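Action item from last meeting closed. Structure (518 res):
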C-alpha cells in the first residue's frame, strides 16, 4: 500500500472553502430577493454613533434582522420605534461574519392607517404628559398685530387665500417663510421656521412678527404627518410669539393643533382670527363717536338744569352781605378814635421809660462793656502766645529731624552717583574695546578667506607638481586640443616654458630649430 494514498475514498461532491460557500449563499439570496416588502412589528431598535439603524422585524413566529444605513435613515418617512407595525421595502443579503441573513431597508411606511393612528395617539399622550398641551401656557392672540409671520409653501393656494383675506379685512405687513408642507423635509423646515421667527430681534432691520400662522391645505394622514412630528410640536410649544395652527381642513387634526395657542379650521379662518374687519371697526368707531357726542350734549343739558334748580334754593346776594356791610361801617366809624387813643398810650409809656434813663447809667454800661472787652483781649493774647510757642516747638522738632534726613539724602545721592559713574566707566570701556574686537574678528575672517582663496587657486596646485598647458593663448585640457594648437606654452610653479611653433606636418622642425613634441 502506498504511504501517500488517501485511505478514505473520494466522492464526486466538490470541495468549498467557507468563504466560497458563504459567497455562493449570498449570491443566491441577493439574486432571489433583490427587492422585497416585509410587514412586521419593530423590535430592539439600536442607534449607534455611526448613524446607522439596527432593528428587528418580527411577527408571532419569526424574527428578521434589519439595517438602515446612515444616508437612508435620514430620509425615512417614518422613524422606527419599538412596537410600531410597518411595511419595510429593501433587499435581503447575508453577513458572512456571523452566518446570518438580514434585510437592508431602503424605505418604510406604517402598516395601514390604524398603525399610524395608534402611533399618533401614543405620541400625543407622551407629549401631553410633559405639559406641552396645557391651556395655562397658551398665550392670547394680539387684537391687531402689526406684522404677521406665515409658515407655509410659497407656491400653493394657501398663501394666496391668507393674503387675500387679510387684504379684505385689515391689510397688515406679512412675512412669509417658505417651507415644504409634506415629505421628509416638512418637519425640520417647519420647526426651523418657527424658531427662526422667534430669533428675530425686536427693532432690527427685519421686523419681528407679533403673530405666527402655520398653514397647509387639506390632505391625507400621510400628507399631514410632518405636522405630527415631535420636533414641530416642541417648536410650537416653545414659541414666544403667539401661534395659530391652520393645518388641513376642519376635520383634520394634527399634534401642532394641540401645542398652538389657537387652532383655525382652515387657513382662511386663521387670517380671520388674526385681524378684525376694518370697515366694521370704522362703523363701530363712528357709532361710538355719535353716542359720545349725544352723551356729552345730554350731560351738559342735565347739569345746566341742575344748576338752575339749585340756584333757586340759594338766598339773595344782598341778603347775605347786608349784615357784614353794616358791621364794616360800624367798625370804620370807631377806627379813628381808637387810633388816637392807642398813639397817646404809646407816647405815655415812652416818656415814662425815657425818664428813667440817666448819663451815669450809660457810662456804667460803657465801662462794663470795656472791661469785658479787655478781659477777652487778655484771654485772646494768652491763647495766641500759647499757640505760637506750640508752633515753635513743632518747628524745632521738624528742624532737628531735617538735618539727618538731608544727610541721608545726600549720602544716597552720592552713592547712586558713584554707582552710575562706575557703570558708565564700564560701558565706556566696553564701547572702546568693541570696535577693536570687531576689527580683529573681521581681519581674522578676511585672513581665513584669503588662505582659502590661495588654497583653492591654481598656483598652489602648480606648487604641488602640476602644470598648466596653453595652446595659442588658451588653456588646453585635452590631447586633441594640444594637437590642433600652433603654439604651446607650459606654466610651472616658477615660470612658463614656450615650446615654439608646430610644423606643418608630423616630425617637422620649428623655424627656430626646436623639435616638435608631435
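Sequence:
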Amino acid at each position: 500500500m502506498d504511504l501517500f494514498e488517501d485511505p478514505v475514498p473520494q466522492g464526486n461532491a466538490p470541495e468549498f472553502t467557507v468563504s466560497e460557500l458563504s459567497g455562493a449563499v449570498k449570491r443566491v439570496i441577493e439574486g432571489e430577493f433583490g427587492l422585497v416588502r416585509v410587514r412586521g412589528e419593530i423590535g430592539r431598535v439600536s442607534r449607534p454613533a455611526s448613524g446607522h439603524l439596527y432593528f428587528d422585524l418580527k411577527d408571532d413566529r419569526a424574527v428578521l434582522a434589519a439595517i438602515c444605513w446612515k444616508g437612508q435613515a435620514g430620509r425615512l418617512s417614518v422613524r422606527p420605534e419599538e412596537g410600531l407595525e410597518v411595511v419595510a421595502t429593501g433587499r435581503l443579503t447575508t453577513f458572512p461574519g456571523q452566518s446570518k441573513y438580514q434585510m437592508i431597508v431602503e424605505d418604510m411606511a406604517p402598516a395601514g392607517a390604524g398603525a399610524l393612528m395608534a402611533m399618533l395617539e401614543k405620541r400625543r399622550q407622551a407629549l401631553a404628559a410633559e405639559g406641552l398641551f396645557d391651556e395655562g401656557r397658551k398665550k392670547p392672540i394680539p387684537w391687531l398685530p402689526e406684522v404677521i409671520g406665515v409658515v407655509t409653501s410659497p407656491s400653493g393656494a394657501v398663501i394666496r387665500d391668507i393674503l387675500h383675506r387679510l387684504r379684505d379685512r385689515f391689510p397688515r405687513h406679512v412675512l412669509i417663510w417658505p417651507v415644504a408642507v409634506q415629505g421628509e423635509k416638512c418637519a425640520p423646515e417647519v420647526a426651523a421656521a418657527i424658531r427662526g421667527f422667534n430669533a428675530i430681534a425686536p427693532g432690527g432691520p427685519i421686523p419681528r412678527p407679533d403673530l405666527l400662522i402655520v398653514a397647509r391645505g387639506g390632505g391625507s394622514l400621510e400628507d399631514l404627518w410632518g405636522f405630527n412630528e415631535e420636533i414641530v410640536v416642541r417648536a410650537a410649544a416653545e414659541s414666544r410669539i403667539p401661534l395659530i395652527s391652520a393645518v388641513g381642513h376642519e376635520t383634520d387634526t394634527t399634534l401642532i393643533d394641540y401645542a398652538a395657542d389657537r387652532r383655525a379650521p382652515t387657513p382662511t379662518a386663521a387670517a380671520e382670527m388674526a385681524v378684525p374687519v376694518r370697515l366694521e371697526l370704522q362703523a363701530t368707531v363712528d357709532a361710538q363717536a355719535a353716542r359720545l357726542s349725544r352723551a356729552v350734549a345730554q350731560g351738559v343739558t342735565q347739569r345746566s338744569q341742575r344748576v338752575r334748580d339749585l340756584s333757586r334754593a340759594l338766598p339773595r346776594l344782598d341778603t347775605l352781605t347786608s349784615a357784614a356791610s353794616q358791621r364794616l361801617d360800624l367798625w370804620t366809624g370807631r377806627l379813628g378814635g381808637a387810633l388816637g387813643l392807642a398813639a397817646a398810650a404809646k407816647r405815655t409809656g415812652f416818656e415814662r421809660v425815657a425818664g428813667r434813663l440817666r448819663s451815669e447809667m450809660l457810662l456804667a454800661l460803657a465801662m462794663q462793656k470795656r472791661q469785658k472787652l479787655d478781659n477777652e483781649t487778655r484771654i485772646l493774647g494768652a491763647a495766641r502766645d500759647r499757640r505760637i510757642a506750640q508752633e515753635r516747638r513743632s518747628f524745632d522738632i521738624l528742624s532737628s529731624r531735617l538735618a539727618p534726613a538731608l544727610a541721608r539724602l545726600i549720602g544716597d545721592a552720592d552713592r547712586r552717583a558713584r554707582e552710575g559713574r562706575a557703570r558708565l566707566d564700564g560701558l565706556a570701556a566696553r564701547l572702546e574695546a568693541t570696535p577693536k574686537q570687531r576689527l580683529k574678528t573681521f581681519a581674522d575672517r578676511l585672513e581665513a578667506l584669503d588662505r582659502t582663496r590661495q588654497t583653492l587657486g591654481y598656483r598652489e596646485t602648480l606648487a604641488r607638481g602640476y602644470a598648466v598647458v596653453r595652446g595659442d593663448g588658451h588653456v588646453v585640457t585635452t590631447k586633441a586640443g594640444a594637437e590642433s594648437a600652433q603654439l604651446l606654452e607650459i606654466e610651472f610653479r616658477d615660470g612658463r616654458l614656450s615650446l615654439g611653433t608646430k610644423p606643418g606636418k608630423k616630425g617637422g622642425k620649428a623655424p627656430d630649430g626646436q623639435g616638435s613634441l608631435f
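Note appended to the action item: Confidence is low (pLDDT under 50) at residues 1-5, 504-518.
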